[in-house]
Structure formats: C-alpha cells, structure tokens
Backbone:
C-alpha cells in the first residue's frame, strides 16, 4: 500500500466524489418527491393511474439497473430526447430510486390507520388539512427507515453511472488504474470513501428517526 | 426486422446470461450459508470478522466490488477470466445479503422448537433440517426470491467486464449495425432487452411464489389446531 500515491490521487478522487454527491443528492431529492407523488397516486382510487404507477414500479424493479441506464443514455437520443451524460445519469438514478421510494411511501401511507381520518374529521379538519397535518407526518415517520435504505442505495448505485462515462468516484479510480496500475491503492481508497458516505447517511437517518419517533404534540 | 435477423446472436447472449445467473445464484447461496454460519458462530473471534466482512460487502457499491475483484485479485496472483471474476464478485455480494436473510429466518423460529427437537432426540443437522428449517422457510423464501431476481439482474454487470451475456450482445449488435447501416437502433434493442430481463425476473418471482405456497401449506393446517407460528420478522431485500 503506497500512501504517498493515494495522497497524490486525492484531489482527483475528491472531484469525483463531488460529482457522485451532486448526482446522488439531485436523485435523492427528485426521487423522494416522485415517490411521495406516486404513492399518493397509487392509493388515490383512480384505477388507470394506479395501474400506471404499479406498472412503472414493477418494470423498474424487474429490470437490471445497468440496462435502464444504457436505454436512457443510448436509446432515448434516437427517439429525439438527448441529454448530457450528467443529466442522463440523474434521470436514470432518479427513475430507479423513484420506483423504490413509491413503494416505501405507499407502505408508509398504508400504515396510517383509518381511525386517523375519522379522528381528524371529528375535529373539523378539512380534507387538505387532514392530508398535510395528520397523514403526511405520520406516513413520513412510518416510511422513514425503508426510505433511508433507498437513499443509501441511491448513493451506492451512482457508481453504476461510470458505465456511461460520468466522471464520478468509481470512474476516476478506474481511469487512474488504467494509467498507473495501482489497483489496490485506488480501490482501498474509494471503498473507504463509499463506506464513510454510507455511514454518515445512515447515521443522519438514525438521528432523524430518533427525533421523529417521539410522540407528536403535547407542548 | 433487426431483432429477427440477429435472433441467434441475441439468443446466445440470453443463454450466457442464464448460465451466468445460475452460477451466481448457486455461488451466492453457498456464500450465504457460509456467512450465515459465521454470523451465528459461538466464538466472537470468528463472528466479528465475518460480520465486518458482510457489512462491508453490503455497504460498498456492487459495481465497485465487481471492478475490484477484477482488478485487484490478479495482484494477489489469482487471475480469473471476466466470466468467473464477475460470477465470484456477485456471488460474494449475494452471499452477504443472503446471510442476513437466512439468519433472520432461523432466529424467527421460537427457541422452544429447538428444545423440542433436542428432547425428541433430533440433534445437530437433523434438528436443523427436519424441525427448524421447514419452519424458517416461510420467513426466508420471500426475501430470498427477491435476492435471486437481484442476482439475475446483477448478471448484466458481466457486460462491464466484457462477458458475452445478453447486455454485451446487445451492445455489440448496436455498435455493428450503427457502423454498417448508419442510424442507431439502440432504443429498439435495449428496449427489447429490458423486456426480456423483465420476463425472466417475472418468471422467477412466479416460481418463487409457488414455492412459498408449498412451504406455507402444512403449517396453515397445523395452525387450526395449535397456536399459530406466524412469521413475525418481515424482511425486504432490495437491490442495493
């Protein structure tokens, strides 16, 4: 293990890490939004919408993520939709993560009992107040552990995007190995970086879960 | 039609995918059993390193594991061709995820069952296979089937190393036709491949559901008479 070499490569790795984090952050943000929206649509009672969302979720979960990336990056341009490598990556990662977030939030919504509706109706809350102030906090709380898992998986799956040439952490490492043949040093350092990212995010998730698992109200 | 014209080429890729995923499923199950045994070991000297290894494998992106096995093992004097290299790395990853599924399944069986097996003279392997495992199956199977579909999907990672499986065949086909005829048929070919993978994974899930019903049956009957031994631990294996 040549630590001097790792130090020398560190600036490059950090640029890669920056791209990894930006892509992941965008995908996490968008997939949570789409996940919530999809979960609401899936439980909306409108049959065609429900079928469409279910079909989307099943299709994404039933096909390899790598093929989805290739389809988006190489396939869509011939259908008239051309995106840069960066945005193809964001779209692919978001499309993948959304399917899982829809499932997570759907389970969260299902965990909120029917009694809550009756309770808030009896308190005179309007329908939107009920949705925003009662259902949303409770559903988020129930969905959080599995949503955190998907968020961690989103960061990890950003590594797949090196296959289309997005210059993120894994790409930088493999690229340097092609020149310097220092495979052990490079892989050791990116493994440590990925592990640190994963531990940080799951740690944050744990803190948020602890805060949210206190009973609401009572001030 | 391009697809019909190069039918045999793509079918060859599909066959390789089927073979590669079978190797990954078998290898993954083998590693899962080994890791699960390590995780349940009495000695902390054995349990802790296995636990650390399993956690690392679960937390490092699969793409990195695949590339790492391919690039680093030759430095240790172990050279594999792309096929066996990808099979090894995905198997180890599957084993790390499977180990937790198996362990949670075994733990979901109440300890009274183990004691009952012992008092009936069923010790060691006999107790495990005749008493514990059949009751753990309803808990193990659902997440394990989804792990198997994940492994099948992960076989597409072989294309990154250059194994001639379905995705790689598609890439070659697209390159060749783009050069020879102009105009990329990428959306058509990748689209068809997506559908092929979906059909494959869907069949695996359907088959898995059949097994799940089979293992759920005898206990459903017994539940009428005795206390229900309903599985309490729900696990979900996600493609991570």
Residues:
């Amino acid at each position: 293990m040549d630590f001097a070499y790792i130090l020398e490569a560190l600036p490059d790795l950090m640029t890669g890490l920056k791209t990894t984090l930006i892509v992941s952050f965008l995908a996490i943000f968008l997939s949570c939004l789409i996940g919530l929206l999809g979960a609401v649509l899936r439980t909306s009672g409108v049959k065609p919408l429900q079928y469409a969302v279910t079909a989307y979720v099943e299709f994404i979960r039933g096909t390899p993520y790598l093929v989805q990336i290739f389809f988006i990056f190489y396939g869509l341009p011939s259908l008239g939709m051309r995106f840069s490598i960066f945005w193809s990556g964001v779209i692919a990662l978001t499309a993948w993560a959304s399917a899982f977030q829809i499932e997570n939030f759907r389970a969260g919504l299902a965990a909120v009992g029917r009694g809550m509706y009756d309770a808030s109706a009896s308190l005179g809350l309007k329908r939107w107040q009920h949705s925003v102030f009662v259902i949303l906090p409770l559903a988020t709380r129930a969905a959080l552990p599995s949503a955190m898992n998907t968020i961690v998986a989103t960061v990890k799956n950003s590594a797949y995007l090196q296959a289309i040439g997005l210059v993120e952490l894994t790409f930088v490492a493999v690229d340097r190995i092609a020149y310097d043949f220092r495979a052990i040093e490079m892989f050791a350092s990116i493994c440590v970086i990925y592990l640190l990212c994963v531990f940080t995010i799951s740690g944050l998730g744990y803190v948020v879960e602890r805060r949210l698992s206190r009973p609401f109200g009572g001030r | 039609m391009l697809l019909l014209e190069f039918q045999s080429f793509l079918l060859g890729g599909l066959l390789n995918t089927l073979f590669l995923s079978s190797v990954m499923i078998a290898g993954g199950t083998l590693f899962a059993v080994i890791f699960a045994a390590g995780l349940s070991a009495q000695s902390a000297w054995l349990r802790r390193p296995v636990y650390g290894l399993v956690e690392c494998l679960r937390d490092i992106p699969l793409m990195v594991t695949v590339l790492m096995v391919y690039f680093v093992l030759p430095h240790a004097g172990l050279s594999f061709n792309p096929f066996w290299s990808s099979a090894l790395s995905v198997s180890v990853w599957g084993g790390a995820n499977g180990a937790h599924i198996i362990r949670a399944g075994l733990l979901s069986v109440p300890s009274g069952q183990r004691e009952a097996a012992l008092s009936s003279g069923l010790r060691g392997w006999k107790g495990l296979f005749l008493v514990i495992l059949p009751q753990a199956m309803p808990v193990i199977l659902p997440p394990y089937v989804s792990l198997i579909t994940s492994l099948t999907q992960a076989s597409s990672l072989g294309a990154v190393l250059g194994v001639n499986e379905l995705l790689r065949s598609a890439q070659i086909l697209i390159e060749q036709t783009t050069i020879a005829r102009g105009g990329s048929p990428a959306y058509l070919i990748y689209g068809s491949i997506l559908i092929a993978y979906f059909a494959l994974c869907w069949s695996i899930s359907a088959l898995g559901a059949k097994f799940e019903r089979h293992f759920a049956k005898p206990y459903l009957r017994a539940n009428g008479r005795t206390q229900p031994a309903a599985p309490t631990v729900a696990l979900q294996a996600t493609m991570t």
Observations:
- Confidence is low (pLDDT under 50) at residues 223-228, 231-240 of chain B.
- Chain B touches chain A at residues 56, 59-64, 67-68, 71-72, 75, 149, 153-157, 159-160, 167, 171, 174, 183-188, 190-191, 193-194, 197-198, 201-202, 205, 236, 238-240 (CB under 8 Å).
- Chain B is about 80% helix and 0% strand.
